[in-house]
């Protein structure tokens, strides 16, 4: 299970992303017939069980995907994901939020498959105004339920754009990425195991719907009764974030000095000065 919380707040200006891998908590779920459209995959994506379940499948010819009907500007968005079981090497199950246009904002979770018994990696990225290159990767573990794994602070003052003005849609997809996903592309998809299937349930967008250029939430945060709107990482959240990053992080763009010979991105150096 996996949860994104997306709430650029007028006061705290923090964007906090939670990852929940396993949980008994069931969000009050909507209905996939009302909430999403299957957008590609020629029948490989299916809405089942009266709208309670979506399955996506991948075979040699194609993967598949769906997206939310609504766009949101601020919100807390939950979904339970069941990743491809067994030998999932080469496959990627993606779950992300993205706005439109060439100067888009995006928050990514991509679950990189692996051989049976070898660990999945969750690959994350943040794009603001069309610029990404902010990858962090983590091993999944059974004990990160409800724990924050990444935060993206508002550093507009230092010239780093922040994703707070463009409404985003939720997207999910299952596709082949065996040129890079598993051990950097060394382990290929075993097509004899196809079709690969991932499933999704309990989509819950506790979020402000964007319609005709207006968000359904008031811009006046003190009259906004959504609890997530004023939520921020408290000191115990900060400690958990540090713990996850220390024990499960396997890649951090802010430590990849080879990749940025001209110097690390601004947000990395601002952070380390703290
Ligand atoms: C797959 O397992 C190998 C061996 O444990 C590990 O090095 C790698 O990081 C794992 N994940 C991916 C997505 O490659
Ligand atoms: C914002 O909401 C608060 C509480 O409802 C109200 O007192 C205040 O006047 C509102 N401000 C604006 C600018 O609407």
Automatic annotation (TrEMBL):
GO terms for cellular component: apoplast. The active site is at 106 (nucleophile), 110 (proton donor). Residues 26-200 form the GH16 domain. It is found in: Secreted, Cell wall; Secreted, Extracellular space, Apoplast. Belongs to the glycosyl hydrolase 16 family. It is an enzyme of class 2 (transferase). Its EC number is 2.4.1.207. Keywords: Apoplast, Cell wall, Cell wall biogenesis/degradation, Disulfide bond, Glycoprotein, Glycosidase, Hydrolase, Secreted, Signal, Transferase. One of its GO terms (molecular function) is hydrolase activity, hydrolyzing O-glycosyl compounds. Pfam families: Glyco_hydro_16, XET_C. One of its GO terms (biological process) is cell wall biogenesis. Its main location: secreted. This is Xyloglucan endotransglucosylase/hydrolase. Catalyzes xyloglucan endohydrolysis (XEH) and/or endotransglycosylation (XET). Cleaves and religates xyloglucan polymers, an essential constituent of the primary cell wall, and thereby participates in cell wall construction of growing tissues. The keyword Signal applies. Residues 1-29 form the signal peptide. InterPro entries: Beta-glucanase-like, Beta-glucanase/XTH, ConA-like_dom_sf, GH16_AS, XET_C, XTH.
């Amino acid at each position: 299970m996996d949860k994104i919380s997306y709430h650029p707040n007028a006061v705290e200006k923090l964007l906090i992303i939670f990852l929940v891998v396993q949980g008994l908590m069931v969000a009050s779920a909507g209905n996939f017939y009302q909430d999403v459209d299957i957008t590609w995959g020629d029948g490989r994506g299916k809405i089942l069980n009266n709208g309670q379940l979506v399955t996506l499948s991948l075979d040699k010819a194609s993967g598949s995907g769906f997206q939310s009907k609504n766009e949101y500007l601020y919100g807390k968005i939950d979904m339970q994901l069941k990743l491809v079981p067994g030998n999932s090497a080469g496959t990627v199950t993606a779950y992300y939020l993205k706005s439109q246009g060439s100067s888009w904002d995006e928050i990514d979770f991509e679950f990189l498959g692996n051989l049976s018994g070898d660990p999945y990696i969750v690959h994350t990225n943040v794009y603001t105004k069309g610029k990404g290159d902010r990858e962090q990767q983590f091993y999944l573990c059974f004990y990160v339920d409800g724990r924050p794994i990444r935060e993206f602070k508002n550093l507009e003052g230092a010239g780093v754009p922040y994703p707070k003005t463009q409404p985003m849609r939720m997207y999910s997809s299952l596709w082949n990425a065996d040129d890079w996903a598993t051990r950097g592309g060394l382990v290929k998809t075993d097509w004899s195991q196809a079709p690969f299937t991932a499933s999704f349930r309990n989509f819950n967008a506790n979020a402000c719907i964007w319609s005709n250029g207006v968000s359904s939430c008031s811009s006046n945060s003190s009259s906004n009764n959504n609890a997530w709107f004023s939520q921020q990482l408290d000191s115990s959240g900060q400690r958990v974030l540090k713990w996850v990053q220390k024990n499960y992080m396997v890649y951090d763009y802010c430590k990849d000095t080879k990749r940025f010979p001209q110097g690390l991105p601004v947000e990395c150096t601002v952070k380390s000065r703290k």
